[in-house]
């Protein structure tokens, strides 16, 4: 009898490490994701709507677009649309300075670009007292023809940032999942702009059918990822059933007979997209990022929608 009890005790003690791992896994699964957001406007203004949004949603990390990089009329690679700081940034906010690079820039001489990017970003951070900068992000829709140039620039920038104790991240589009990952520390998977804007029958911002062919590549993608989900809308202008452009204010003239189609993503579609990511690469939802928190988007969407998107 004593031997039997001792055997049972040994089995019970042997199971403790397994039980601990199971309980730890359950706690990890239920951990609330980091709540982050992109800010893509050209002026940083902390009005009451933005302040309320950041506080009520517990947003602790902000991907702040600093400037774009474009090819000017003379064929030179230049910064454009630099962010204007009308207000200070909350001191408790982690900020990720983000730069959008037009793909055509990678067809030019970019030998000094990594140095110029880091210098300009760090100068802006110092000038405007940007707090808690641990990471820089580059956004570029690179193509197979520009891949090597872009990756080479990223490699140089990553190595330079590491000497400053900073990380480098990059945006990853769905169609890029079939390629090898860029030489960065982290990626943000863009779960938006998935379709053809000229197709009147589908939502080009996020359509799960458009995502389906690319998602199987996610499981073997060798780069830590976070996921960004859309909370913006588009007004698409069509003339004689042909796509004219995305409307921004009054930038496109509207004539008699034109059709304006408003596209936005239903909450249910965003939740299904999150569930699809969760099934394939759950760690990508450990940080949930909204794109983007402009004044119009904050006011357009109900607060409980944001809460549902942020929560697992």
Task: Characterize this entry briefly.
This protein is α/β, with parallel strands linked by helices and 312 residues long. It has helices at residues 2-29, 48-56, 113-127, 147-163, 208-211, 267-280, 295-300, 303-310; strands at residues 34-39, 43-44, 61-71, 77-80, 84-85, 94-101, 135-139, 167-173, 186-190, 225-230, 233-239, 242-246, 259-264, 287-291.
Task: Please explain how this structure is put together.
The protein is built from eight helices and 14 strands. Mean pLDDT is 89; it is low at 1-14 and 16-29. The strands form three sheets. Strands 1-3-6-7-8-9-10-14 form an eight-stranded parallel beta barrel. The protein starts with a helix and ends with a helix. Helices cover 32% and strands 25% of the residues. It is of the alpha/beta class and 312 residues long. Strand 11 (233-239) and strand 12 (242-246) form a beta hairpin. The chain has helices at residues 2-29, 48-56, 113-127, 147-163, 208-211, 267-280, 295-300, 303-310, and strands spanning 34-39, 43-44, 61-71, 77-80, 84-85, 94-101, 135-139, 167-173, 186-190, 225-230, 233-239, 242-246, 259-264, 287-291.
Question: What's the structural blueprint in terms of helices and strands?
Answer:
Blueprint: H1 2-29, E1 34-39, E2 43-44, H2 48-56, E3 61-71, E4 77-80, E5 84-85, E6 94-101, H3 113-127, E7 135-139, H4 147-163, E8 167-173, E9 186-190, H5 208-211, E10 225-230, E11 233-239, E12 242-246, E13 259-264, H6 267-280, E14 287-291, H7 295-300, H8 303-310
Helix pairs in contact: 3-4
């Amino acid at each position: 009898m004593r031997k039997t009890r001792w055997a049972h005790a040994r089995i019970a003690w042997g199971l403790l490490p397994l039980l601990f791992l199971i309980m730890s896994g359950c706690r990890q699964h239920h951990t609330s994701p980091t709540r982050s957001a992109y800010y893509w406007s050209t002026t940083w203004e902390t009005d009451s709507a933005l302040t309320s949004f950041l506080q009520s949603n517990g947003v602790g990390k902000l991907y702040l677009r600093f400037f774009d990089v474009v090819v000017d009329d003379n064929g030179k690679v230049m910064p454009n649309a630099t962010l204007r700081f009308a207000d200070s940034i909350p001191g408790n906010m982690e900020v990720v300075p983000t730069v959008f690079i037009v793909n055509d820039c990678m067809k030019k001489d970019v030998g000094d670009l990594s140095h110029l990017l880091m210098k300009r970003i760090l100068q802006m951070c110092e000038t405007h007292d940007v707090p808690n900068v641990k990471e820089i992000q580059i956004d570029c829709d690179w193509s197979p023809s520009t891949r090597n140039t872009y990756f080479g620039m990223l490699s140089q920038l990553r190595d330079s940032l590491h000497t400053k104790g900073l990380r480098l991240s990059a945006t990853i589009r769905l169609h890029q999942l079939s390629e090898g990952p860029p030489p960065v520390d982290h990626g943000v998977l863009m779960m938006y702009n998935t379709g053809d804007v000229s197709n009147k029958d589908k939502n080009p911002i996020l359509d799960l059918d458009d995502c389906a062919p690319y998602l199987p590549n996610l499981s073997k993608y060798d780069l830590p990822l976070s996921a960004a989900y859309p909370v913006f809308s588009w007004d698409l202008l069509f003339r004689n059933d042909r796509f004219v452009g995305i409307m921004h204010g009054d930038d496109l003239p509207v004539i008699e007979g034109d059709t304006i189609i408003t596209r936005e993503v239903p909450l249910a579609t965003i939740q299904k997209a999150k569930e699809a990511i969760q099934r394939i690469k759950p760690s990508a939802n450990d940080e949930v990022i909204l794109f983007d928190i402009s004044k119009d988007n904050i006011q357009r969407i109900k607060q409980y929608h944001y809460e549902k998107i942020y929560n697992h």
